[in-house]
Amino acid sequence: MDERAIFHTEYGVGISSLHPQTLGIQYLLKQSSQSSSVCLSDDKSLVFVSFKDKAIINTYKLQENENLNKIDSANKTGEIPVLQRLPTPEPLTNLILIKNNYLIGSAVKPTRTLIYIYDLSSGSLINTIPMGKVHYNPINRIKFLSSKNMLITMADDGRFVLWSLLDLLKNNDEDIKPVYVFNEHQGVGVKDVVFDKSESILLSTGDDGTVCCYNFISNYTPTKEEQKPKYSVEHLVLVSKFTFPQAVVQLDIDHAGRFAICVLRNAEIWELPLIYSMGQGKIANLHSLPMQGNSNKNKASLYNCSLEKDLDLSNDTLINLLRRGIISCRLIAKGANTIKISLDSTGIIMGRKKVGQSCLFVDISTSQVIKDIGTPLGLNVRSDTSEGIFIDEVYTITLNEQLQNNKTFISDMILPNMSKVVENNYKINILNDPASTNNQSVVGNDFEKYIQDHVKNGSIFNAHDTFDGEDLVVEKSEFITKDHRSDELLDQKNREIEDLKLQVARLSKAYSELSEMV
Questions:
Q1: Where would you find this protein in the cell (predicted)?
Q2: Which of 81, 138, 250, 258 could connect to 263 by a Cys-Cys bridge, CB 3.0–4.6 Å?
């Protein structure tokens, strides 16, 4: 197994192994400068890259099963070419791939923020969701809680919001309402939301200099003022609130929920303990309520975070410090722009912002630099105006072994091009309800409207979606052929559809000829 990190800067996207025993496997993605976000497929075989100023998504195929035992491949530095370019309506940011099928990204227009949802198997744009009623500022990040099928969006309006994936996949006339809306950051920007491996602990951070810790609690009874959950029996409750002397611009949490790593605005990296040692073998769990139960009197604990060097940490005062709401944090490093904790939680990958600095792999316990993973690829910061280096993801890859599962996300398959518009007549009919079937008729009196609705759009989609365990299955048919009447009426309707298709083709040709004449 090899642990690798994907990171990007304004000069391109790089992939590098973290541990010295792999002797430096480095890749640079071609034509990836000015990238805005990066995401991976579930099997880590395909990379999606979006750009700040280009309405396109580049895809790249990663190398598999490299043989590191050969001398000629012990130090490998290479470039990965673009596999495919997928055009989009406008430049997208915050890319995320869900269930290896749904590619989601956000875009900012002059008057509103939108979320685009694509079905990669067909290339169709399933839904375009305006965020104006929930987020009135651009979205900073998008993340997905797979165990609860919820999407998380966060923005500079001081909110982070949980959405039901099923609601977002629907395209109907009704407003899509979020499941949870949190405003704990006093109306200032929410910069990041992270969660542990079990997805039971959530941490949010913002420009107000606080880190809020939440927990999913099944036996919690919400008050009248609190929002009742729509799709889950569990309730997301604020457990603890940590205050820092500077705004926290990014954070990451240990996979076991033991500690969090925070990047402050002054570029310092602090270690925040969530399992707090008080000395003499005593510990305090800071990410759970002090009193479990069905009581509404449970209040969030408030803590003031300070550095070890500024506190008296003798054993007889640790309990008193905690009772007074003071948490002892440790300074790991300085000069960081973004961070990511490694999968084994022994190190952090930190992107620097200073001129000439790069992406480093640092040991958490000793604060020593283990490896420089950005300079060999030329992705170091080169100017004062650079935004810095951003770490996108850390993942593992199997080496020297054949994959047991041949069902990789992509082999020789080419992804279909992405649609530019959402079909106006796209509906999702829950449980095949015949009352919701779309039966729009052709309007022949308004020729321009007819051309717009039936020629430009091309087809009418009727889809049914169900959850099968964790997998969302969407079935689509090009034209509506499902009817709940007799077979004779169904055949008649199919013949009428074929006649309409011929009529549409003739009118389309006539319209083109008229346009050329004008």
A1: Nucleus
A2: 250
For Cα atoms 143, 144, 147, give the angle at the middle one, nearest 5 degrees.
150
- Interacting residues of 288 by C-beta distance below 8 A, sequence separation 6+: 215, 239
Task: Tell me the two tokens of residue 66.
Answer: 């490299």
CB 357 within 8 A of CB 381: yes
Question: What is the predicted pLDDT for the residue at 319?
Answer: 76
Domain that holds residue 287: 2-397
Give the DSSP letter string of 446-470: -HHHHIIIIIIS----EEEEEEETT
Distances (CA, A) of 353 to 22, 93, 266, 334, 340: 27, 21, 11, 11, 15
341 and 460 inside one domain: no
Is 161 within the bounds of a domain? Answer: yes
Residues 380 and 495 in one domain: no
323: pLDDT confidence band, cut at 50, 70 and 90? Answer: confident
Question: Mean pLDDT throughout 317-339?
Answer: 85
Residue range 398-432, pLDDT digits in tens: 765 444 444 444 445 577 777 766 644 433 333 33
Domain check: are 206 and 158 in the same one?
Answer: yes
Q: Span 112-139, mean pLDDT?
A: 85
Q: How confident is the model at residue 457, as a pLDDT? A: 45
Q: Dihedrals φ, ψ of 460, to 5°?
A: -110, 130
* pTM of the full structure: 0.73
If asked whether residues 240 and 339 sit together in one domain, one would say yes
3-state secondary structure of 513: helix
- HSE on the CB side for 122, CA within 13 Å? 15
> Does residue 393 share a domain with residue 437?
no
Q: 166 CB contacts (<8 Å, ≥6 apart)?
A: 149, 231, 465, 467, 472
What are the CA-CA distances from residue 313 to residues 82, 307, 365, 481 (Å)?
A: 54, 10, 18, 74
Whether residue 12 is found in the same domain as residue 119: yes
Please tell me whether residues 165 and 222 are part of one structural domain: yes
Take residue 69 and report the two structure tokens written for it. Answer: 């035992």
Question: For 184-218, b where at least 16 C-beta lie within 10 A, e where not — what string?
Answer: bbeeebbbbbbbbeeebbbbbbbbbbbbbbbbbbe
The dihedral sign for the CA sequence 330, 334, 340, 342:
negative
> Is 417 within a domain?
no
Cα(208)–Cα(169) distance, rounded to whole angstroms? 33
- Shared domain check, 472 and 356: no
- How far apart CA 156 and CA 213 sit, in angstroms, is 19
Give whole-number Cα distances, 13 to 32, 251, 347, 509, in Å: 6, 21, 21, 46
How far, in Å, CA of 394 to CA of 420, rounded? 32
